[in-house]
Design goal:
alpha/beta, TIM Barrel, 2 domains, five-stranded parallel β-sheet, 43% helix
C-alpha cells in the first residue's frame, strides 16, 4: 500500500470515528412535542425569556428555617422565572424541602400558564443537600470500584431520595477528566480515563434518569462541558489550550456516551477553551453538542458565567452584549444566579433590537419545556416524602457501604503491616484524622462541607473514632501536628505541634497519618 493511500485511509477512518456520535440522535416523543408547540404558541415573549432565567434561592428569602420574601413572588409571577437552584445556606430536611419547593410550585400554579418551576441541586454523592439522606463516596471513590452496577445503584438511590425532597433535577454527573494533576477538583470526577468516565457516566445517568418521568427519577446535568478540568495553569475556571482533535479524542466521548444514554441537560465549562469563553463558543455548544451529537435537551450555564464573560474575561463592553453572545452561541438557560431583572430586561431588549433572533428564543424555551414535560412536572410539580418510605433507610445505607468498601484500594502492604497488631501502640496524626468534613469532602450538606462536623458529629465516626473503637482507647494516641485554617481556606494548613508528633512517634509501634 503506497503512503498516499495509507494517509487517505487514515483520514477517512478518523473522520468516521469523530462523526460516530452524530448517529446518536435523541428520539423525541411526538405527543410531548405537540404539547410543547401548543404551549409555545400561547406564550408571550416575556414568558419565554423568564423560562431562560435561573436564580439562587438565597436571593429570594432567608433565615433558619428558610422563609421566602416577596422577591419569590416577584421572580415567579412578575418575571416568569423558570428555574431556581441551591440550598438556603444549610441542609433542610426532606420535609422542609417539600415545603420550600411546594411554595414555589403553588406560586407558579397561580400564573397565567401554570408552568412549573424546575428546581435543581448539586446531588454529587447522594442527595447531599438533604439532611438525613444517604451519602455515597465521591465520584473518584465510586470510580475506584470499577463497578458499573454499584455506580448505577448510587444513581438510583440519589434519584429516589432527591425526589423524596421534591427536587427533580441534579447537577451531576461530573464528566471532567482528571488529566491535569494541578487542577484542584479531581475528586469530583471519575478519574483521567475517558473510557472509564464514559462507562460510569452512562451507569450513573441510567440510574438517576432512566426512565425519565418516573416519580423516582431525576433529570441529570452532564458537567462541565467540556475540558473544564484541563486548564493550562491548573487553576479552577482558567483557560485551556487544547487542539480540537484532542478535545474529541479525550474530553468529548464521556458526554457523547451519556447523551446516547438519554441525558437531558448539559452544564457548560466555566472557563475558556483556546482563548474563547465556552459560554459564547457556538462551535462547541451548537455545532458539536446540538447538531453533531443530536442533543435535544437544554443547555444551562454554570454559576454567573455569562456575567463572567463581561466582568472576568473582558470580552464584551457590557453585560447585555455578553448575554446576546451567549444565547446566540447556544445557552438555553442562564444560572444568573441573582439579578433576574437585569437579565430578563436585557434579553427582551436584545430580541426586540434583532440581536437575538426570536427563533433562538423559541428553540431555547422549546428545549426547556420539553424536558419539564418529559420529567412529568406539569402533572406532578411536587413529589412528597410520604411517598418515599426508603428515604435514608438501611437498604440505601447498605448500598453506600458496599460502594465505599469496594472503593478502598490497597496499594502496598510491605512487611505485613496490615492488619494492625492487637495491643500495639498507635499514633494517629494529621489534619484529617478527626474530621468528618475531610472524610466526606465538598458538596456535603453545604458547598464546601463546612457544616459537616457540626451536623453529623456524634452520629458517625471519624477515622480516629474508628481506630479507637477497633483497637481500644488506651492504645491510640492522637496528636494532630497540623490543622486546616478553615473558614473557606481549607486548602491551607497551619503547624500546631510537630514537635509533639515527633516525640509521640518514638514510642509508637504504628503511625497512621491522614
Amino acid at each position: 500500500m503506497n503512503q498516499s493511500l495509507a494517509r487517505r485511509l487514515l483520514l477517512a477512518c478518523t473522520a468516521a470515528a469523530l462523526a460516530l456520535p452524530a448517529l446518536a440522535q435523541q428520539t423525541l416523543n411526538p405527543a410531548i412535542e405537540r404539547r410543547v408547540e401548543a404551549l409555545l404558541r400561547r406564550m408571550t415573549l416575556e414568558e419565554k425569556v423568564g423560562q431562560m432565567a435561573q436564580v439562587s434561592i438565597e436571593s429570594l428569602g432567608g433565615g433558619t428555617p428558610f422563609r421566602f420574601s416577596e422577591k419569590m413572588r416577584d421572580a415567579v409571577v412578575t418575571y416568569k422565572i423558570g428555574s431556581i437552584l441551591n440550598t438556603p445556606g444549610y441542609p433542610p430536611t426532606a420535609a422542609e424541602w417539600n415545603r420550600i419547593v411546594g411554595e414555589i410550585q403553588q406560586t407558579a400554579q397561580g400564573t397565567r400558564l401554570k408552568i412549573p418551576v424546575l428546581y435543581g441541586l448539586d446531588d454529587i454523592h447522594g442527595a447531599n443537600y438533604v439532611l438525613g439522606a444517604t451519602l455515597f463516596p465521591q465520584q473518584i471513590g465510586q470510580a475506584a470500584t470499577w463497578n458499573r452496577a454499584l455506580v448505577r445503584r448510587a444513581g438510583e438511590v440519589t434519584a429516589y431520595e432527591g425526589r423524596a425532597a421534591g427536587v427533580p433535577w441534579t447537577f451531576s454527573p461530573v464528566l471532567d477528566l482528571g488529566v491535569n494533576p494541578q487542577w484542584p477538583r479531581l475528586w469530583e470526577g471519575y478519574g483521567e480515563d475517558p473510557f472509564l468516565t464514559s462507562e460510569l457516566g452512562v451507569a450513573f445517568t441510567q440510574g438517576v434518569q432512566v426512565p425519565l418521568g418516573a416519580k423516582d427519577k431525576l433529570i441529570v446535568s452532564l458537567k462541565h462541558y467540556m475540558a473544564y478540568s484541563d486548564p493550562r495553569s491548573g487553576h479552577d475556571r482558567s483557560d485551556a489550550w487544547i487542539p480540537e482533535h484532542y478535545l474529541r479524542e479525550y474530553h468529548l466521548p464521556p458526554f457523547a456516551a451519556a447523551i446516547r444514554a438519554g441525558a437531558r441537560n448539559v452544564m457548560v465549562n466555566s472557563a475558556l477553551i483556546n482563548g474563547i469563553p465556552t459560554h459564547v463558543n457556538k462551535h462547541i455548544l451548537t455545532d458539536i453538542l446540538k447538531k453533531e451529537l443530536g442533543f435535544t435537551g437544554f443547555v444551562v450555564s454554570d454559576w454567573q458565567d455569562i456575567e463572567n464573560v463581561y466582568r472576568r474575561d473582558r470580552m464584551t463592553a457590557s453585560l447585555k452584549e455578553a448575554i446576546g453572545l451567549a444565547i446566540n452561541a447556544g445557552i438555553d438557560m442562564s444560572m444568573l444566579p441573582y439579578d433576574y431583572k437585569e437579565f430578563t430586561t436585557d434579553l427582551l431588549a436584545l430580541v426586540k433590537e434583532g440581536t437575538v433572533p426570536q427563533a433562538r428564543i423559541d428553540d431555547a424555551v422549546r428545549r426547556i419545556l420539553r424536558v419539564k414535560m418529559e420529567a412529568g412536572l406539569f402533572e406532578t410539580p411536587l413529589t412528597r416524602l410520604a411517598d418515599y418510605p426508603k428515604f435514608g433507610g438501611t437498604e440505601h445505607a447498605r448500598a453506600a457501604y458496599e460502594t465505599a468498601a469496594e472503593s478502598i484500594t490497597l496499594l502496598k502492604n510491605n512487611n505485613g503491616t496490615l492488619p494492625l497488631r492487637a495491643g500495639a501502640r498507635v499514633l494517629v496524626t494529621g489534619p484529617n484524622a478527626a474530621s468528618l468534613r475531610t472524610l466526606n469532602g465538598g458538596w456535603t450538606y453545604t458547598w464546601q462541607g463546612d457544616q459537616t462536623d457540626s451536623i453529623a458529629g456524634g452520629q458517625f465516626r471519624t477515622i480516629l473514632d474508628a481506630l479507637r473503637a477497633k483497637l481500644g482507647e488506651a492504645q491510640v494516641h492522637y496528636v494532630p501536628g497540623v490543622s486546616y485554617l478553615g473558614q473557606g481556606k481549607y486548602a491551607q494548613d497551619t503547624t500546631v505541634d510537630i514537635r509533639n508528633v515527633v516525640r509521640a512517634a518514638d514510642s509508637a509501634d504504628y503511625i497512621v497519618l491522614c
